[in-house]
Design a protein that fits this description.
7-stranded parallel β-sheet; alpha/beta; globular; binds nicotinamide-adenine-dinucleotide; 291 residues; 7 strands
Length: 291
């Protein structure tokens, strides 16, 4: 196990899914955690789980699309927890659509959160790490969708490919300051975000995707959290600027293409899940709009 005792981890979107799994894993490894979230109820749940590991948990309301809110979140993490040694730029939304009728706001929200939000998070955290003189570790959550795309996923893919490229560029500048930065490309991970793409556990879409996945299952947030634990620990000292796929092998198994044809039963099932995800998006949208 990695020993992160005495370290502080700043994690965006840590109220749910991969961010929550990462908060719990890094707390188990010994780190105190700052949860930077728009969804304060979700953040509260993560905070109480972090405290069960005997670690300190701080909640800051932070929309990563707002430079002022990201800066305030970083400043208040430093003030309350004493610094930032680890930053995980995880917050993201997944919204697909047709190039013929996607609304500008739909596109812009995704760019503002998935791309600009990662830039703002890394900039504020790295500035603090440079000023401290202690270096640090940063992990950005990209996606397997940075490599693969489709007629429905192109806008999401564009933001995630951007993250992978930004990380490669940033590694050169941050390395001499003792800051390692890497990107992760998760495949299908069982989280609320993934339900719109991959449906429910045991459902027809998930079953088909899992059958096409060499390891035979979807990923869990704890799978990605384990990789993050490695990347922020001493064994990853020589690793920076990388983009690491963790996808159960589905990358070369054509899993994504299964869902593209709207006339197939799977395509129709996904359309039903996309409608269900609209309900969750409608709940998050007012929080996203508060900048
Ligand atoms: N689940 C997957 O299959 C999968 C695959 C590849 C990449 N990812 C990426 O992993 C990251 C986490 O996704 P997840 O699946 O855990 O999703 P999730 O929806 O379960 O969690 C995302 C969290 O981010 C928060 N959030 C959303 N917008 C925010 C904003 N503007 N500012 C701050 N917080 C915000 C949400 O409230 C939520 O708690 C995302 O960047 C996503 O694109 C997920």
């Amino acid at each position: 196990m990695v020993d992160l005792s005495g370290k502080v981890a700043f994690i965006t979107g840590a109220g749910s899914g991969i961010g929550q799994g990462t908060a719990l894993r890094l707390a188990r490894d010994g780190a105190d955690v700052c949860i930077a979230e728009i969804d304060l109820d979700a953040a509260e749940e993560t905070a109480s789980m972090v405290r069960e590991f005997g670690r300190r948990a701080q909640i800051v309301r932070c929309n990563v699309a707002s430079q002022a809110q990201v800066q305030e979140a970083v400043d208040s993490c430093v003030a309350e927890l004493g610094g930032i040694n680890i930053a995980v730029a995880n917050a993201g939304i997944g919204r697909g659509g047709s190039v013929l009728d996607m609304e500008l706001k739909h596109w812009q929200d995704q760019v503002d959160i998935n791309l600009t939000g990662v830039f703002l998070t890394v900039q504020a955290a790295a500035q603090r790490m440079v000023a401290s003189g202690d270096g640090g570790r940063i992990v950005c959550i990209s996606s397997l969708a940075a490599l693969n795309t489709s007629q429905w996923m192109w806008s999401y893919s564009a933001t995630k490919a951007g993250v992978a490229m930004m990380v490669r560029g940033w590694a050169s500048e941050l390395g001499p300051h003792g800051i390692n930065i890497n990107a992760i490309g998760p495949g299908v991970i069982d989280t609320p975000l993934a339900h719109s793409l991959a449906g429910d556990e045991g459902g027809p879409i998930r079953t088909a995707l899992e059958a096409a996945t060499p390891v035979g299952r979807s990923g869990a947030p704890s799978d990605i959290a384990g990789l993050i634990s490695f990347l922020v620990g001493p064994d990853a000292d020589f690793m920076t600027g990388s983009y690491l796929v963790m996808d159960g092998g589905i990358r070369d198994a054509r899993g994504g293409g299964l869902l593209e044809d709207p006339d197939t039963p799977l395509g129709q099932e996904r359309a039903r899940h996309m409608q269900a995800s609209e309900v969750r998006n409608a709940r998050l949208q007012p929080l996203i709009d508060q900048r």
